[in-house]
Amino acid sequence: MIWKIIKLKLRYNHKRSIVFIFMAVLACSLGLGYAMLSTQLSIEGTSKFHEANWDVHFENIQVKNGSITPTSPATITNPTTVTFNVKLENPNDFYEFTVDVVNSGTINAMVGGINILPVLTSAQQEYLDYKVTYKNNKEIELKQQLDAGTAETIKVHFSYKENVDTSLYPTEDQDIPITVNIEYVQKEDDATEVSPFKKCTYQGTLTQGSEFIEGPYTYHYKQEYQKIADVAQWANIETDGWGVRITDATSTAPITEEPCTFINDKPIVSMSRMFHGAQTTSVDFSKFNTRYVTNMSEMFSRAENITQFDLSSFDTSNVTNMDGMFFRVKAQTIDVTSFDTSKVIYMSSMFHSVEVDTLDLSSFDTSQVTQMGTMFSYSNIPVVDVSSFDTSNVTTMTSMFSESGITTVIFSDKFKTTSVTNMDLMFSNTPINGTLDLSSFDMTNISYYNYIFLNCTATTVYVRSSVEQNKLNNSSGKPSGMSIVIKS
Fold first, then answer.
1. Whole-angstrom Cα distance, residue 265 to residue 237?
2. pTM score > 0.70 for this model?
3. How confident is the model at residue 173 (pLDDT cuts 50, 70, 90)?
4. CA spacing 20 to 30 A to 5: which of 16, 70, 179, 347?
5. Quick check: 399 and 376 in contact, CB under 8 A?
6. What pLDDT does residue 5 have?
């Protein structure tokens, strides 16, 4: 199950109020021939019932007496979704409810994974209490059973603590996303195959920076691999999980081992620079469980010997950062058609310098993306179709297609630029054939568009109005043979 508090806003007296906007979604699936059956209650999930004998769902919400009146009460909006919206304004305000998770199928289930993303900061823990337990306050633990025909009652409680020094309360609005993941899988005795999760064990006391090595991978607790001031290093993160990196990037041997999904019940949350500079020629990605990963920035950057990327098994539903993910990859194919990018915010340099002949981006949901600078620069993709892109929140498109071998870019009305402020060098040194249709572009708020067409070979650029026509005609480095025409 994934319980997600999307937003909290906090006040004491003249400060902010606490607003919880909550949604829980139950996604059920029946695995065939590979792994144990599983059920996931997940934010923005989907419900797929492939077989009648696997059915885990929500029933029977009961709100505790004394709970503050919610803006929108906890409601099962369909058998797999619970939502509510509640505001806590004063210390001692609380909201608590129970909901039954019912196994109406014929297959026994059990808890297969637990994690909380992120943990509250020490300051937040001073005034905010948030718990998800069984009704009897017993902790939810791995391998606890939910047999066919039975139910468990789960309690959700959160409150504004009383008797707290008022100086500890926040003084302004805060966004605090909290996700509690409880994964139900088929009970081990009933499964014919292995668990879809690889659970590993670290022997020792977990502290930030604890290192665990297994197979070809090195893991660090509450750290991820980053490049800081031109030095590659492990850097601290707040999320209560692990980062992972290939141990020996110089090895050319194929990698067939799957990485851990959990280590001591803490999930792998960052694959930042996991294969950066790796010399291996192939990686078997089919067994990767990436369900809890939020950071895939530079995951494959400069892994120039891997010739194919079949990432159809990747679950990217929680990923927010894909900056430089395929930077300078020389693979013949990159299959990202199964990617769920609905939470991704950063896509800068994602396909920088790639050399594939085709790239299908039709499934991309870019509605949350804010950064697309250098996304395709220096790439040799002949045709880039971004007609599916919703760019309403993008603020930076600097050098997005520059210095590339792109001859055709396909836009649509969804490609909005109302939030963009910087388009410097966007199409510079790009060999566009013939026309370039930018009629969806609104350049009213764009302050920087220097050298946007420097050495671009497009002969005609279509725009929506005289605002864009005047700006582009006066842009630095505009080729003298390029016509800027208002599209009729």
1. 18
2. no
3. low
4. 347
5. no
6. 38
